[in-house]
Predict the 3D structure of the following.
Amino acid sequence: MTTHTPAPSSCQVVFPALGTTAAVLVSDSVALPAAEAVLRAELAVVDRTCSRFRPDSELTRVNVSAGVPTTVSTYFAEALQAALRAARLTDGAVDPTVGSAVIALGYDRTFASLSPEDARPVPVARPAPGWRRIAFDPRTRRLRLPPDTRLDLGATAKALAADRAARQAAAVTGRGVLVSLGGDLATAGPGPEDGWRIALADDHARPAPEGGAAVAVTGGALATSGIRVRSWRRGGRVLHHIVDPATGEPAAPVWRTVTVAAATCVDANAVSTAAIVLGERALDRLRATALPARLTRLDGTVVRLGGWPPDSHAPAPAGSRDTALGGPR
């Protein structure tokens, strides 16, 4: 499931970034240039700091230094703490030490550069080293990874960037702001009276289906994880990018997409990703959190938890923004 961008308007801008689609919407078109500038600046920082595809990124430097203590930047420290929070929140179902496992599966370059058919056999999977083995002092920003460990901050760093950009843009403009990064949504400030309307679909990069399901977001954040958008074939197997840290393998396919609402995009992202990893066990976990969630099985059957409302298929009210932005990564 994803959220889709409405028809072009003076209150939004959409552009490619971080290998996905970035969008910012504002409640007043006057605020759009400033909000866009905030978002682009945030994206430049998160890419420079947390990209595992850039040889000059701070993440690359940190991974090369595994086993040796190193001091990280303020931004990297915040991104790492977001990843560690996700690991704690999900009891390790989301774990930043899956970097080597993701690379072994063949996701060793930007997704757009991946071959959809790779004849090489899939290497024997190994469990992730485990987030609890990371030694990090937030006060001094000193970090020591276990030897031969690679961090992958991709999902949580993107969610953090959405949270940060929305807050900063709302503070700068004094208007309501919605930021979407590949379907992970964060809002801040006073939004439209009837909320930001979000269309639900399987791919945020495609047009929202006519008459498709939609929800209204009045605050907080929404994140969707899925196994359909970033998938490829290797050694005759269909693989996807969400790795189970316990096995080093792609999570068993139970849910096509999972969407979760929470106070922050980091938390919504952590819980939605964990649900993909946990499969059927996710239902009890989600009930315990009481967070609103919408899970779609492979056959299209939908499970709603935590007060997630029935799908609305009614046309958007006049002047509302039907946004298809919150889709699988």
About this structure: The first helix runs from residue 32 to 50. The chain is about 25% helix and 25% strand. The radius of gyration is 19 Å.
